[in-house]
Design a protein that fits this description.
By secondary structure, the protein is of the alpha/beta class. Helix content is 31%, strand content 24%. It has eleven helices and 15 strands. Strands 6-5-7-8-2-15 form a six-stranded mixed β-sheet, sandwiched between helices. A five-stranded mixed β-sheet has the order 1-9-14-13-12, with helices on both faces. A two-stranded antiparallel ribbon has the order 3-4. It is globular. Bound molecules: coenzyme A (COA). Coenzyme A binds next to helix 2, helix 6 and helix 8.
């Protein structure tokens, strides 16, 4: 089922490298102990089954576009470029402020960019991996010099807080990268993407779209909230994460032995550990921050990437693999040879930044 664009052998004239990163999470921290007062669960159950210890929650006054805009501004500052230089904005999200317009349009206004191309990508938790591939194609084709790619979600607004099997898993946040052309042997080397709509009901929001619009019945049954068959999603995730990462690596002539750091979707520590085991990667070659943020959907991979860079875990020339899976079902992986010299970058706090 895995489909992908051609990778290294087609030798694009230009390659896309990440020149700036930024993230933004709400200030409100909700721990497992807070949740056990609210739901029929225990802090210990959540920690041992998922690895999550706390998550950030956007209150009523914080929206997906606000987090995305702040992350984008932080990434622009990190890259030391003006919002006026951005040629295209792609936002991965499935929890936009509105059904439409897109969150990317709101971010365009929020950062004060020119009236450029801006659109959303809906691939759930795989969204950033999909969007990064698209953004890179704008650079590789010469259609754009500077592309802003954002992953932003506030899935806690789509939860049924009485459903303990889902409400303990998610958190809110956003992160962004700036893409520009880089040396031809660096940057995004290959991508592998896939989807299987046959699994669309394994994790979904059944109502609120055009098929089943909001009604009193929908609200009574909470069909406008996330429904999930957890163990089936778990099995899918463990299988597909390793497979898609290995496929992406093979598309640029690499193997798991070449990987310096794996940045996996942060849904469950047990899923991450199983995938790493299948890839033969030891713990110090895998970045994990699920304990502090839970599953932030499309923001999960770029938040982890931002934190990995800030923690000094990625150096110029390193092979970094981003891998995600999510509703759809969707999955994907990007292989990047890191093109930025981190020692040259300003050591500011621009990769973080919270919103109250
Ligand atoms: C959801 C998940 C953590 C559940 O872990 P699990 O080990 O598979 O647990 P199970 O679903 O088998 O449930 C075991 C028991 O715990 C219970 N349980 C579920 N959530 C609970 C919670 N928050 N607190 C306490 N008990 C809970 C279940 O009701 C079940 O009880 P039962 O045996 O009496 O029926 C796990 O399946 C998972 O992570 N799945 C993938 C989810 C995911 O990644 N989603 C996002 C995709 S992008």
């Amino acid at each position: 089922m895995i489909t992908a664009r051609p990778s290294v052998p087609s030798q694009p004239v230009r390659r896309a490298g990440i020149v700036g990163l930024g993230m933004s999470v709400p200030d409100l921290v909700v721990s497992n102990y807070d949740l056990e007062k609210r739901v029929d669960t225990s802090a210990e159950w959540i920690r041992t089954r998922t690895g999550i210890q706390e998550r950030r929650i956007a209150g009523d006054s914080i929206t997906t576009s606000m987090l995305g805009t702040q992350a984008a501004l932080n990434a622009l500052r990190d890259a030391d470029i003006s919002s006026q230089s951005v040629d295209a904005i792609i936002c991965a999200t499935t929890s936009g402020d509105y059904l439409w317009p897109s969150t990317a349009c709101l971010i365009q206004q929020g950062i004060g960019a020119n009236p450029i191309c801006a659109f959303d990508v809906a691939a759930a938790c795989s969204g950033f991996v999909y969007a990064l591939d698209l953004g890179a194609q704008y650079i590789e084709s010469g259609r754009a010099e500077t592309v802003l790619v954002v992953g932003a979600d506030t899935l806690t607004k789509q939860l049924n807080w009485e459903d303990r099997s889902t409400c303990v898993l998610f958190g809110d946040g956003a992160a962004a990268v700036i893409l520009r052309s880089c040396n031809p042997d660096e940057g995004l080397l290959a991508t592998s993407l896939g989807a299987d709509g046959g699994g669309s009901e394994l994790i979904w929001i059944p109502a609120g779209g055009t098929k089943t619009p909001i009604s009193h019945c929908v609200l009574d049954k909470k069909l406008n909230t996330i429904q999930m068959r957890g163990p089936e999603v778990y099995k899918f995730a463990v299988k597909v994460m390793g497979e898609v990462a290995i496929d992406a690596l093979s598309r640029c002539g690499l193997t798991c032995a070449d990987v310096d750091l794996l940045i996996p979707h942060q849904a469950n520590i047990r899923i991450i550990q199983s995938a790493a085991e299948r890839m033969g990667l030891c713990q110090d070659r895998v970045f994990i921050n699920v304990e502090r943020y839970g599953n932030t959907s499309a923001a999960s991979v770029p938040i982890a990437l931002s934190e990995a860079v800030k923690a000094g875990r990625i150096q110029h020339g390193d092979i970094v693999v981003l891998v995600g899976f999510g509703a759809g079902l969707t999955w994907g992986a990007n292989v990047i040879r890191w093109s930025r010299d981190e020692s040259d970058c300003r050591k500011t706090d621009s990769t973080t930044g919270g919103l109250e």
